[in-house]
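Suppose you are handed only these lines of text.
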Amino acid sequence: MTEKAPEPSGKLRETILLIGFMGGGKTSVGQSLAFRANVPFLDTDEMICEKEGRTIPTIFEQQGENAFRDMETRLLRELVEEKENEKGAPEWTPQVISVGGGLPLREENRELMHALGRVIYLKASPEVLEKRVEGDQSRPLLQGGDRHAKILSLMAAREAIYEDAADISILTDHMTVRETARRILAMARSV
Ligand code: S3P
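From them, the structure of the protein bound to shikimate-3-phosphate can be written out as follows.
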């Protein structure tokens, strides 16, 4: 379905970073939010794949997870540097950035995210997440074996980190992409 054209009043005052587990809706909510706010949308996974000319499964297979984590940190450092160079310039504009599910795990990355903007955790229950990633082959950490158990154990290891890294958490279990984007926009305008 096509969304109504954005209103200029919807512009964000600061960059919004969306964090959360795989399947949490970061990319779809991010796209909808950016469209509504009429600001650019960035996706760290997509930017890394573009830079590398490889898919995430290929990067994991060829170089391992740690190398991918280094790429995430490098990318964040570049974005912070760009922001610092552009700050105060008339062409500076806030952005919506959807970040890979494992990116907030590094402390340096959490600091870099806060240097970029406001961090929002899109939270969902394991049952909902499992449904949303059903059949997905693009996420190396969910391949092979018992997917339900993988999600539960990754969630157990990450939940507190996501909560801690976030300025705001939103439970999205019963919300559509559009509702979630609207909620974020309303919050971003009022703070
Ligand atoms: C990962 C999440 C993925 C991607 C990579 C690792 C993770 O991004 O960065 O497969 O560790 O949770 P999404 O959260 O966008 O699926």
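What can we learn from it? Residues 101 and 176 are 20 Å apart (CA to CA). The pocket of shikimate-3-phosphate is lined by residues 22, 26, 45, 56, 100-102, 139-141 (CB under 6 Å).
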